[in-house]
Amino acid sequence: STSEGRVLVPRKGVTSITMTRSLALVLCVSSLAIAHGFVAPAGLRSVVSAPSVNKLPVASASASRLASPLSPRMTLTPSSVAHPEQVIVGSPLSIVYVYDHCPFCVRVRAIFGAKNIKHEVRFMANDDIDTPTKLVGKKIAPIMEIPTKNEVMMESLDIVKRIDEDPTMGPSVLLPGTDRTDLKAWQKKHQDLFRSLQRPRYVASGLLPEFALKAGRDAFVKNHPVPPFEKPDWKSDNYDMATRYAKYNECMGKTDELLPQANTAVEELEGMIFSAKHASEPGFGYDDIELFARLRSLTIIKNLNLGAKTKGYLEYMSAKFDVPLYDQMAV
């Protein structure tokens, strides 16, 4: 929030790399918190000073808290969610190439988690063009590779279907989707509100692997407008990077105004989610793959008051899919 002085600033001179989760976390903690001057007043959350060409941000003493891998608020407990027996299909393992924040990527991670298929997750830097282009001919995510079958796929729901229906990877676990027009309408109704809150936080957190380096953050900010801007205008030469970052900062500065609206919006979800174990009455299925992928990003918004049913649903699905929420790094 603005009371903590949380703003974004573009920096120069760092190139992007493709990384594993562990490497990304090391880079985030050491490079972002110390060398880049991120401030973490509340555990795993980071900020920088207002934009200035000649002035570098100064890290506060509280940034040293990032040296600890766990926030003081974090406790580790074994999952109570039952999983099928782990499936290992050949060697090398299947690989998913993803961005952590991307809901389409979450869909793919979710089906692998739901079927408990051992696989490798590779987080691409947001400006990495070479990796996806070599795999499928263009910059896109998610991508799935099954090396033992010389198979590469894109398109998230195609991948979900491919994995769910493959008997060599265990029995199918997903019921068909029920075309939840109410959930789709809710998402469309509040799209601009949550883009204003979520997009600046993706890059401001400093911990998502695709944004560990400056080039990755720049690529995202350049290609993802905040309301009321439309993408063609936002990406045009009408705006330089300093202006785009300034607009992101303006959204962060509106947190006190937008958060009550977001709290009202998430209250509406309570009547739409059937239970913690499945969003729709028939049972666990494609509706949950799609809904969890969209709702997960709500947890990056600090002090968002999720209702009991929504919170329970997110926590259950997070454990079932083996896809962590953002609670411990909320901004």
From TrEMBL:
This is GST N-terminal domain-containing protein. It comes from Hemiselmis andersenii (Cryptophyte alga). Residues 97-166 form the GST N-terminal domain. InterPro entries: GLR_AS (IPR011767), Glutaredoxin2_C (IPR007494), Glutathione-S-Trfase_C_sf (IPR036282), Glutathione_S-Trfase_N (IPR004045), Thioredoxin-like_sf (IPR036249). Residues 246-330 form the Glutaredoxin 2 C-terminal domain. SUPFAM superfamilies: GST C-terminal domain-like, Thioredoxin-like.
